[in-house]
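hey team, just a heads up i'm posting the complex here instead of the shared drive bc the drive is being weird again. everything in one block, sequence lines first with there labels, then the predicted structure for the whole assembly after. its four chains so it's a bit long, scroll down
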Amino acid sequence: MAHKRDREATRARLLDCARVRFARDGYDGASVRDVAGDVGVDPALVFRYFGSKSKLFTEAMATSSAPVVLPDGPVDELPAKLLRDLVFEDWAEYAGEHPLIAMLRSAGHEDMRDRVREQVCNGYLGVLKELADGNDDAELRTELFAAWLLGIGILRTAVGTPTLAKATEQDLLPHLATVGEALFGRPIPIPAED
Amino acid sequence: MAHKRDREATRARLLDCARVRFARDGYDGASVRDVAGDVGVDPALVFRYFGSKSKLFTEAMATSSAPVVLPDGPVDELPAKLLRDLVFEDWAEYAGEHPLIAMLRSAGHEDMRDRVREQVCNGYLGVLKELADGNDDAELRTELFAAWLLGIGILRTAVGTPTLAKATEQDLLPHLATVGEALFGRPIPIPAED
DNA sequence: TCCCTAAGTCATCGATCGATGACTTACCTG
DNA sequence: CAGGTAAGTCATCGATCGATGACTTAGGGA
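-- predicted structure starts here --
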């Protein structure tokens, strides 16, 4: 007996595995058979529960349990926290990449594009917005900073640029402070090493 | 008569179409039948000429006619030129995205990853390197700036963040100068509007 | 214990993909 | 104009994918 016959539990496990598969392999790279195999269930069950691969994908993204744990605390500590989350956290189950970066692989699909945008806007940008208070072009500055963090993550994990790939968090923090101060006109403290 | 029987010419046309297809649809999304169809030739011919889809891909990327026209001229004008190339150029045939950003869709494949890295390192980073002269962490600063440009391009075209998607080149140039100066410790001129 | 409902499975379809090998046709040479 | 060679085509294979519908089996209530 692999598992009890529980519709909701099986559905939830399918969604969990689908999330990882889609993020790691992209929409096209992840097959329904793969997801079903992870759960240890017949592929046909996926279609019984979700109707189609596309709907499985949409629901998996929409019910993302905890794609991002948005940090709180003093605003000027946010850049360092986001840097850690986006760049230096160990996302082993997502093939070493932040789920957001991994999801960009599927950006050809409209659903994924919308989902990523929503996550970036309502998540990261909403959190970063306070930093730009008092500046003109506040939204633009916020998005520019987010673009930088995203670009760093991509160069590190998806491209594998030599210096950045080897850089540690401590290497990046001073530059994070420099750019953050230039962009937001306020000092960005460098947290102590732990 | 569609075209003359010219092995080299047909090969070259296949490579051209393959480049666009791979960049726009990704490695998995682009089929050999698509590429052959673009050229108006039988798919089997592709295998006769290149052996496999993977080899077609590798050769298409390696012989990239002009994936990037690296700008020259005074070093402090490079940021603005790269911003235009990466973010504001009209890459209509690549579905509106810079080829480099489009190629990231295929970064799951090792070949593509290597190719993108090579292009970034020997292309953009090589050009930008001079800007960091005189700083410690010169390579890191260079890669961080490249990460920023890349991130801007991705947020604009692949994610579609609201403010950045609507921003014009003139909107971004002041911030480019600000961040560039902070990162490289030298003034970055803002070119006049044309 | 019986049995009915729902959870899960099996067999299979049609489309598409990469790939192969035998075939046909166009062009150049003598 | 004849004929050989190379450019290009056709038929087809095996694998994989999403998807469907009929089937089997588990398990709780009477």
